[in-house]
């Protein structure tokens, strides 16, 4: 019944309903207006995401396609080959082509769907190593499995694709680094977002959505506001709404 | 595709995706397992809720019916007749019968649906008056529009109905008052929940759900965990999942 918004991505999307998460904040923003679906898959890269596409975004579903979707991959694709997370690594050219396939599929679902590309956040290599030591102690990796320099290349390709396809995008890699102390302020383990980092994503997403016309303020309530219900003859209020 | 959980209620449900909200926490708990839908309608009583039933819970929909639903009304029904919120007032016997109609409708949708009744929270009358003064100043109501004593009667009828229908229920009115200082600890304006109050609701709902067999731990992931994907031949992992 309500318009749908789908958040498609990796763990940074998957964890977006944790306390202070950007997904929950988005769901709250669209309260009584649209449903926000968390389709975040921790650890997934774009290569694996392709296998989910037809089930998450069916081409011939019984439901209306989503009005908007965020595509937020790259943090795992950018894991370095030859390091501890290499099984998640996807070469950057393939990453870009996989993103392109995802976008094309979504546009096949609905040419009017707002599709927003989000780059991976930056990497705080020290924070990443600290986190590994805190979890694995002596067995922790000796070299970071992701670097900020390599992740930047993925972010750049993501933004390039958005420009090629004339899609709105969020350069989270750059945005987060605009603030001094971003390493600890916005990232909690060198990669995943703190509550403040989630707030940055939320503000960016709402900003891009509103600019593209997907704005909670512009969307209708599904039923009358309680103050508009005729308390003596409530059926009148609901008949009007349904006609 | 995923099982659905619907939260049906008034503002205490509608606000449940705010920071620290019980709905967002529930969505996070069921991450990758089930979708949680916020169907909270601020200011609504059970009389008005009846008008929404067929649209929120269609009897002959294309979608599978929800696996679980919370019904969380009464805070507005219990507004006092003759006071400032009297338009929301519903007599307690009608409140109980309206709840019964809601339950019957949900069971008509799906006899296996887990339906959980939640009583309204208690009222902190001082907190309510303070809040009114902070918003309306001199024009604030001179007498509380809800009392804890009257709300207790609604809570009692809600629990009685749950017993009559052999449904699980949460006596939030009683539960919240078990803790000293509940007035400010759990309520922020004498009626609506603080983050800590939301945590109480979340814990109660998850507890009742698990006892009734709706447990995230027992539900399957919709797609393989990333650690189980065959990185060399990912298609194998996804074929297995779909078969």
TrEMBL record, chains A, B:
Pfam families in alphabetical order: Lipase_GDSL (PF00657)
Keyword Hydrolase: yes
InterPro entries the record matches: GDSL, Iah1-like, SGNH_hydro_sf
GO molecular function, one term: hydrolase activity, acting on ester bonds
Keyword Nuclease carried by entry: no
Keyword terms, alphabetized: Hydrolase
Gene3D superfamilies named among the record's database cross-references: SGNH hydrolase (3.40.50.1110)
Family membership noted in the UniProt record: Belongs to the 'GDSL' lipolytic enzyme family.
The name this protein goes by in its record: Uncharacterized protein
